[in-house]
Amino acid sequence: MQRYPSRSDLSDMESYRIALLGLGTVGRAVAELLCTTRDECAARAGRPIEVSRIVVRDPSRDREVPPDLPGEAILGGDAIEAISDPEIDAIVELVGGTEAPLEWIRLALEQGKDVITANKAVLAVHGDELFGVADHHGSSLYYEASVAAAVPILQVIQQGIPAGPVDRLTGILNGTCNFILGRLEELSFDESVKAAQAAGLAEADPTLDISGMDSAHKLALLARILLGCSVPLENLRIEGIEGLSPHDIEFGWEHDLSLKLIAMLRRNSHGTSLGVMPCFLPNSHPLASVRDEDNAVLLEAEPFGALVLQGKGAGGMPTAGSVVADIIRAARGESIATPRSGVLEQITDPGDLPVRHYLRLEVPDRPGVLARVAGALAAEGVGIAALDQPEILDTVGEQVPIRIMTHPVSTTQLDAALALLDEDLRSITRPIRIRIEE
Ligand code: HSE
User: Fold this and answer.
1) Which of 105, 229, 257, 302 lies at 20 to 30 Å from 283 by C-alpha?
2) Which of 147, 176, 260 to mutate to test the pocket of ligand 1 (most atoms within 8 A of CB)?
3) Longest CA–CA separation in the chain, Å
4) Given phi > 0 = left and psi -120 to 50 = alpha, else beta, which region is 292?
5) Using a 6 Å cutoff on CB, does residue 311 contact ligand 1?
6) Distances in Å between the alpha carbon of 76 and those of 4, 19, 171?
7) By alpha-carbon position, which residue is closest to atom 4 of ligand 1?
8) Is residue 1 domain-resident?
9) What is the number of the ligand 1 atom nearest to the C-alpha of 173?
10) Atom 7 in ligand 1: which residue has the minimum CA distance?
11) CB of 210 closer than 6 angstroms to any ligand 1 atom
């Protein structure tokens, strides 16, 4: 049986020295966690872990570097210098963005150093190159924190379940969007985004989150492990939560449905479909009750049935937990192979599967408008299963929301119908349409 080394054993061991790139929300949380769990980390890693360098954009600014940080960190502004320091075993990249981190990660891997990162964007877009460099130089890339923050989903799909059999993955992979959708129960979309910013979740520019792109980056990383190849993001249906409103949430309440931004992977005899879309889930679905900034992943496969992992998907400390777990794995020399065998060429659209859809149109309350909407739907064979429009007295001609539930159709078929709406109706407001997953 393996035992943790004692303090006296550890004092003879060579330290594992890291350079921390970035001291923002996650960087500070990592520093704090390394202080408060110093002994436990060393015991698990089998050697002390020290922060030897910290790199920030402007080192002259006052920073809160915890005074009891393990190691004697040199604070500087030059990432290349820190990465090239021969004393450094690993870089912990927590800056975000793609351009500079791509260069730093590549350089560190070329020098045989370990890289620990929470940067999903750089790995989703440049993964082929970076995993290739790591292979070539015998270095390792750890990225548990890049998907679903505190949830150790990469460990589970890499090591905890048999390779190959997962044929359905359904994920809530963006904590900010899940938080915003929860707040929409009481607030407008813009107010909900502001609430997410006030809670320290959404960036000043929340586009990456609310456009669905952040979820797509994470889905691509999960798919790389599950399918053994890379996924070209440009071939995916990626839709976000922009423009959703309390009207949509209320429709969910009336029909026992919960509105979530869903990343999905489906494999069957016709191929593999991948995409990110807002979906209504029945309230009995395992992900329907996931609230606030939690993330959750439902894996379905023959050998184990259904498996759900859930936890905090955003925020400094939840992300730092996974970063520190990766630092420990790296210090122990446990590398994890990431499969690379080409690009997934044939991606089908998850929107092809016919399901009921919810449709909301903000239209002028005038005679004939409903007939034009119904005509466009009928022309593409989209059947209306239910419809409502609130009565707004004394406001003939004002805008009202028409909410429609369709019979099962593909999203593509519904979009073709919406494209037939006359220009003046479409220009009033972008129609909102949401799949109702069974
Ligand atoms: N912005 C992300 C989210 C967290 O809200 O889920 C970092 O991936």
Assistant:
1) 302
2) 176
3) 85
4) left
5) no
6) 34, 10, 39
7) 314
8) no
9) 6
10) 314
11) no
Q: Is the CB–ligand 1 distance for residue 201 below 6 Å?
A: yes
- Residue 307 is predicted with a pLDDT of 95
pLDDT at 425: 72
Q: Is residue 327 part of a domain?
A: no
Looking at the structure, tell me whether residues 133 and 21 fall in a common domain. Answer: yes
Give the phi and the psi of residue 71 in degrees, each rounded to 5: 95, 165
Continuous segment of H or E residues that includes residue 274? strand 271-282
Report residue 345 as tokens: 């060429």
- Binding site membership of 15 for ligand 1 (Cβ less than 6 Å): no
- pLDDT, tens digit, for every residue of 266-295? 998 888 999 999 999 999 999 999 999 999
By most ligand atoms within 8 Å of CB, the mutation choice from 144, 201, 205, 292 for ligand 1 is: 201
The partner residues of 159 in beta bridges, in order of sequence, read none
Position 153 scores a pLDDT of: 97
Three-state secondary structure call for residue 386 = strand
Residue 362 DSSP code: E
Query: For residue 395, what are the domain limits?
Result: 354-436
306 shares its domain with 369:
no
Measured between alpha carbons, how far is 320 from 399 in angstroms, rounded to an integer? 47
Q: Which residues contact 397 (CB under 8 A, 6 or more apart)?
A: 364, 365, 366
Number of domains in the chain: 3
The residues annotated as belonging to the active site are: 218
- Amino acid at the residue 348: T
Ligand 1 contact via 209 beta carbon (within 6 Å): yes
For the Cβ of 151 lying below 6 angstroms from any atom of ligand 1, the answer is no
For Cα atoms 136, 138, 103, give the angle at the middle one, nearest 5 degrees: 65
Express each pLDDT in 209-254 by its tens digit.
Answer: 999 999 999 999 999 999 999 999 999 999 999 999 999 999 999 9
pLDDT for the residue 400: 87
* Residue at a domain's end among 89, 112, 143: 143
Read off the pTM.
0.94
Taking the centre of ligand 1 as the mean of its atom positions, its distance from the CA of residue 50, in whole angstroms, is 27
Q: Is 322 in the pocket of ligand 1 (CB under 6 A)?
A: no
CA–centroid distance, residue 174 to ligand 1 (Å)? 5
115 and 235 co-located in one domain: no
Separation of alpha carbons 77 and 66, rounded Å: 18
